[in-house]
Amino acid sequence: MSEPLLKLTDVSKSYGATAVLHDISLEVRPGEVLCLLGDNGAGKSTLIKVLSGFHEPTSGTFEVDGKPATFKSPRDAGEHGIACVHQFGGTFPLMSIGRSFFVGAEPTKGWGPLRRFDRKFAGEVAVREIRALGITRVTDGDRLVGGLSGGERQALAIGRAVYFGANVLILDEPTAALGVKEAAHVLRIIMQARQKGIAVILVTHNVTHAMAVGDHFAVLIRGTLAADFRKGERTREEITDLMAGGEAMAELEAEIEAYQREHAGQVPDPAELEQLADHQKPTA
Amino acid sequence: MAPVHTSTAPASDGATVPSESRGAALGNLVRRPETGALIGTLSVFVFFAIFGGSQFLSAGGTASWLNVAAELGIIAIPVGLLMISGELDLSVGSVLASSSMTLAIVSGHWGAPVGLGILLALGLGLLTGFLNGLLVTRTGVPSFVVTLATNFGLAGLTLGLSRVITGTTSVAIDPGSPAKELFGTLLANKFEVAIFWWIGVVLVVGWMLHASRYGNWILAVGGDTVSARATGIPVPKVKIALFMGSALGAALVGVIQTLLYNSAQVANGQAFVFNSIIAVVIGGVLLTGGYGSVVGVVLGTLTFAIVQQGIYYTGWNSDWASLILGILLLAAVLMNNTFRKMALSYAPKRKA
């Protein structure tokens, strides 16, 4: 097995007295898709923010390519080859495609005070990189990003990260806001990135999407790593269970069974089931 | 595009035409953010050319609105830049008054060299802008509130200190040469030298926003602060620099007015607070940030100045100027929204 690109050991994060992540240890390998699963509030977003340099962990260590590293800012993480793409692509709707592609790393031409943004180059590179990801509808780098569809914006953001040498790509719910066709396209782009040897960390709620592209799965429940397994080690049902809250669902099923025993095999009616479900909700 | 990747392209998109027709000049013009502002400027110019007659079109008439536009423009351009980054500056009124009084007190009341007074006046402006930026970026309090507070605080400070130092609220100054020629003279007895300062500000800021990489940063900060930070843009520094810019513009107009009228008054400048915002908004800058252009702000400033001065040439009561400006502001925002939507809804044409 190849060396991990990114290795987390016992990483914890707390905001004041509230602990959000407990002792997370993870390995991210090149050419692998790691699916980060978990319910809302399980700590996925915090983990991503720690990974991408938005927050510093309270304790624990990071290793990039086997060397210890600390990320004090997103820029630090970026310099270590870690790029994060948010749900809506982290792009700027009212900026042109070329400008948006090069935000923060603008290509310039000319000398001294006449150094200026190279609009033509920016537009050409942006369009080329987006088209290389299979989006052929994009032809003009001067058009506004707001005119692109959700999948095209994801392609813009992913293409940008890859162009700037990201080798760990964090995708936060990239398919959540997309239709079926667009989501499939984004998954294809993920597979392309994987083929190039990029490590992809995919955060998603959608089991089908996770199963389609994932090599490695990590499930977060209330800030702890509840399960860490590889493709084929768990069935779809088990993964769904884990994503839906794991134990909570199992307990609910047990109670339904108990009810059936008490009521001579009768299935609880929907209202009663709702009561059972309410009872199961975590009291946090 | 690399042939390796063509296999991943969905078949339905195969018909796209890569080369875009260059003949669609009108279509492209309509999609420019400044189009609404240009229509506004031309409309009011034609309107007052008709109702204001030859007087409005004469050199004197032209100078009257150009002078107003120049002073407003020197403030509106950097304020517009700040608004593109998503922040407001309501403190320009007091910055203008305080720098104006600083120059008059230092060089008029105390008799120090005019150059020193000008430097201190501009320096005070920069300091105020720096404080505005620092407060906004450190505390997270909306700039609307921070700069409103600065506007009142600085107004009180200017009034209080002026009375303590000079005993009055109006101080005279004899600028002498070359300060008078550089900042406060009239060319051909009509045109303020401020017009050239305005042109200078337009060129410098226009270059910065549209050609330099910093323009990209400003657009990105206004478009999405979190994403901008993620790409490594020093967001607080950008904002502080822009607050200093708008304050510097206001301080410069303070210096210009003081040297033009040979005196300074503590109540000067408050009209610029809202007038600059009106000019910027008419010019197509999005109030929430992320969108706008220097050409648009220039057009917005011209529109404002033409309405405000043009009304005198029609023979109507000048009370109506504000009504026209109010209607124009609303119409401009609605029109700009339409043009922005057209720019966003663009999709490349496909072969039939």
Automatic annotation (TrEMBL), chain A:
InterPro entries: AAA+_ATPase, ABC_carbohydrate_import_ATPase, ABC_transporter-like_ATP-bd, ABC_transporter-like_CS, P-loop_NTPase. The keyword Cytoplasm does not apply. PANTHER family: CARBOHYDRATE TRANSPORT ATP-BINDING PROTEIN MG119-RELATED (PTHR43790), SUGAR ABC TRANSPORTER ATP-BINDING PROTEIN (PTHR43790:SF8). The keyword ATP-binding applies. It holds the Pfam family ABC_tran. This is Sugar ABC transporter ATP-binding protein. One of its GO terms (molecular function) is ATP hydrolysis activity. Residues 261-284 are annotated as: Disordered. It comes from the Bacteria. Keywords: ATP-binding, Nucleotide-binding. Residues 6-247 form the ABC transporter domain. SMART domains: AAA (SM00382). SUPFAM superfamilies: P-loop containing nucleoside triphosphate hydrolases (SSF52540).
Automatic annotation (TrEMBL), chain B:
It comes from Promicromonospora soli. This is Xylose transport system permease protein XylH. GO terms for molecular function: transmembrane transporter activity. PANTHER family: ABC TRANSPORTER PERMEASE PROTEIN YPHD-RELATED-RELATED, XYLOSE TRANSPORT SYSTEM PERMEASE PROTEIN XYLH. Residues 1-10 have a biased composition (Polar residues). Residues 1-20 are annotated as: Disordered. It is a multi-pass membrane protein. It comes from the Bacteria. One of its GO terms (cellular component) is plasma membrane. It is found in: Cell membrane. Its main location: membrane. Part of the binding-protein-dependent transport system for D-xylose. Probably responsible for the translocation of the substrate across the membrane. Keywords: Cell inner membrane, Cell membrane, Membrane, Sugar transport, Transmembrane, Transmembrane helix, Transport. The chain crosses the membrane at residues 37-57, 63-83, 116-136, 148-173, 193-209, 240-261, 267-287, 294-314, 320-339. The keyword RNA-binding does not apply.
